[in-house]
Amino acid sequence: MRITVIGSGYVGLVTGACLSDLGFKVVCLDKDEEKVRALQEGDVPIYEPGLKEVLARNRADGRIRFTTDACEAIEHGDILFIAVGTPPSEDGSADLAHVLSVASMIGRHLKGFKLVVNKSTVPVGTADRVRSAISHELSHRGMSLDLYDVVSNPEFLKEGAAIDDFMRPDRIVVGIDDGVNLAKSQRMMGDLYASFNRHHSRTVWMDVRSAELTKYAANAMLATRISFMNEIANLADVLGADVDHIRRGIGADTRIGHSFLYAGCGYGGSCFPKDTQALVSTAKAHGQSMRLVSATEQVNEQQKLLLVDRLVQRMGPDLSGRKIAIWGLSFKPNTDDMREATSRVVIRHLLERGAMVSAYDPVAGSEAMAALQIDCQADPGLLDRFDLAADDMQALQGADALMVLTEWKIFHNPDFQLMKDLMRRPFILDGRNLYNPEALSELGMAYQGVGRRNDLVQLLSFEPIPSTDAFFQSSQVEKQKLNANA
Ligand SMILES: NC(=O)c1ccc[n+]([C@@H]2O[C@H](COP(=O)([O-])OP(=O)(O)OC[C@H]3O[C@@H](n4cnc5c(N)ncnc54)[C@H](O)[C@@H]3O)[C@@H](O)[C@H]2O)c1
Predict the structure, then answer these.
(1) Which of 4, 6, 11 to mutate for ligand 1's pocket (most ligand atoms within 8 Å of CB)?
(2) Is the separation of the CB atoms in 192 and 79 below 8 Å?
(3) Fold held by 2-206
(4) Cβ of 201 less than 6 Å from ligand 1
(5) Best substitution site from 27, 28, 30 to test ligand 1's pocket, by max atoms within 8 Å of Cβ?
(6) Strands of 227-384, DSSP E
(7) Among this protein's residues, is 271 annotated catalytic?
(8) Is 305-485 CATH 3.30.750.24?
(9) Mean pLDDT (10-residue bins), the chain, 486 residues
C-alpha cells in the first residue's frame, strides 16, 4: 500500500515520517511552496524531537518525498490522509475550508479506488461533507461514486512527544461506516496499522460519527482536568494548602490517575483551546449547551492572567520602569509552537502596563517574535520594550521579577544564588510549579507558585524605581538580530 498525506504540518509530517519508517512509500503534499521546498532540501520547518532524524533517513532511502503537485500526490497513494488545519472561525466553530477544499481536489483527480482517511480534528458530520464534496466532483466528471470511501482516524499525538506517541499509540481510533466499500476499507485500515497491533489490538473500531466525537471528548476531558486542578490550586492558595500534595493525594486513586493534574498558568496550544471552543459551538448548533466545557475555557482564560494579576497586586497596575523576565515562550516544552501560548497573553499585558520584558526560550525565540508581532499589530511600539535574551541568566539581569511560563527541563535546576545576584529583586512567579517554595524562601527569595502555600512568600518592598535600565539597553543588539530573523 502506498500513502499520500495531504497537509505537511505537525500531524501530516509526523504521520508521513512514521509511516515511511514502517516501510510504506509516502508522498507528502502541501500547498505551501516554501515549506515543501524546505522539506525537499532536508529542512524541517517545525521543532519536534526526533522528527528531523526520521525524515532524513527515510528521505535518503527514497521512502518519503514532498510535493505541491496534487495530481501526482493523489495518483500515488492508495490511502489519502487529510491532515490539514481546522482553525477556529470567529464564532468558535471549526473552519472546514481547508478540509473541504482538499476533498474537492481529491474528487477532481481521482481515477481508481482511494481510501480517504481524515486525520484532521473535525466536527461530527464532516465525513458526510467530505463525501459530498468528492461525489460532487466525480458526478461532474461522470465517474462512479463508489471509487472511494471516507473513514475517520483522529490523531492523538502530543507535540513534543509526537514521534513516540505515533509509534507507540495507546489506541488507534478508526471510524468506518457501512457501505459498498466497507470490507475493503476495514482491510486497508487493518493493514495500515498492523505493526501496532501485533501484540494485542490497539485499534478501537467504531462508526465515523463516534470517531469524530471521540477526539473532541478526549481533548475536552484533558482540558477539564487541567482547569479543575487550577481551580483547586487557586482555592489552595487562599486556604494555605499545597496543590502539589493534593495532586499526589488524588492521583494515587486509580479511578483518577496521575496524568493531567498539574496546576499552572493555563493551557494553550493548537488543540485544547480550539477543540473545546468547537465542541461548545457544535453543541450550540444542536440546541445543547456544554456547561462543563464552557467553564473549562473560562477558567483557562483567567488562569493565563494569574501571574500578571499577582504581579499587579505586589507592584501596582502601572509597571512602567519594571523589568520582568520570562522563562519559556512555547505553549509547552519540546516544541516551538506558539499557538495560544500563555506567554503571548502575559507578555502583551505586561507591555501594555508599561513593563520592560526580557524573555528566554531554548527553541521558540523566533516563532515567539513572529507571534508577538501579530499580537501587537495595533500598537507595534509596545515591542520596543520587549527583548529576547540569549540565555536564561541574561534575561534575569536587573529584573524585578521572573515568570516561569514553560517547564523546559533546563529551567528545573537553575543556580538560584546566581539568579538572586542577577535580579534587582529576587521574586519568582512560578507558573509551572517547578521549584520548592521552602527552599527558595530559605535562600531569601520571594516565591509564588500556583496553589503552593503562598503564605510563605516573603514580602519584598516594591518602591518606585527609575525607568532607565542599563541591563535592558545592553541587549538591544540581540533583539535586533532576532527581529531580523523572525
Ligand atoms: N498539532 C497537534 O498537536 C495536533 C494533534 C492532533 C490533531 N491535530 C489536528 O490535526 C489537524 C492538522 O493540525 P496541524 O497542527 O498539523 O496543522 P498545521 O497548521 O501545522 O498544518 C496544516 C498544513 O496543511 C497545509 N494545507 C492547508 N490546506 C491545504 C491544501 N488545500 N492542500 C495541501 N496542504 C494544505 C498547510 O499549508 C499546513 O502546512 C488539525 O485539525 C488539528 O486540530 C493536531
Answers:
(1) 11
(2) yes
(3) Rossmann fold (3.40.50)
(4) no
(5) 30
(6) 323-327, 356-360
(7) yes
(8) no
(9) 97 98 98 97 95 97 98 98 95 95 98 97 97 98 96 96 96 96 97 95 97 98 98 94 96 97 97 96 95 98 97 94 97 96 98 97 97 96 96 97 98 97 95 94 92 69 55 49 47
